[in-house]
Design a protein that fits this description.
With 84 residues, the protein is an alpha+beta fold. Helix content is 30%, strand content 26%. A two-stranded antiparallel ribbon has the order 1-4. A two-stranded antiparallel ribbon has the order 2-3. It binds iron/sulfur cluster. Iron/sulfur cluster binds next to helix 2.
Length: 84
């Protein structure tokens, strides 16, 4: 049972998330953390770049400076776009 619990923990990940309903695509987060945030011209929306670990200081700075207050940390299974 402990083994299963440990496996579940390893699947959990802390990652930044953007509330796209409030985001105005000002791109301020890209200026602060270009390795974390990007703009997808195909969708016309901001995206979080998938990576193993996120630079906590940079993401916190982007959260602090987002004019719409729409970036937050989430903890859970990371929503990957790659097939399982
Ligand atoms: S700083 Fe905030 S409002 Fe501006 S693009 Fe990034 S997430 Fe959207």
């Amino acid at each position: 049972m402990n083994f299963l619990r440990r496996e579940e923990t390893l699947l959990m990940k802390k990652f930044p998330s953007i509330d796209l309903g409030r985001c105005t695509e000002c791109k301020g987060c890209i200026e602060i953390a270009p390795t974390v945030f990007c703009y997808n011209p195909s969708t016309g929306m901001m995206e979080v770049i998938e990576q193993e670990e996120y630079p906590e200081d940079l993401v916190n700075e982007a959260i602090k400076n987002c004019p719409e207050d729409c970036i937050s940390w989430e903890v859970g299974e990371y929503p990957t776009s790659k097939p399982a």
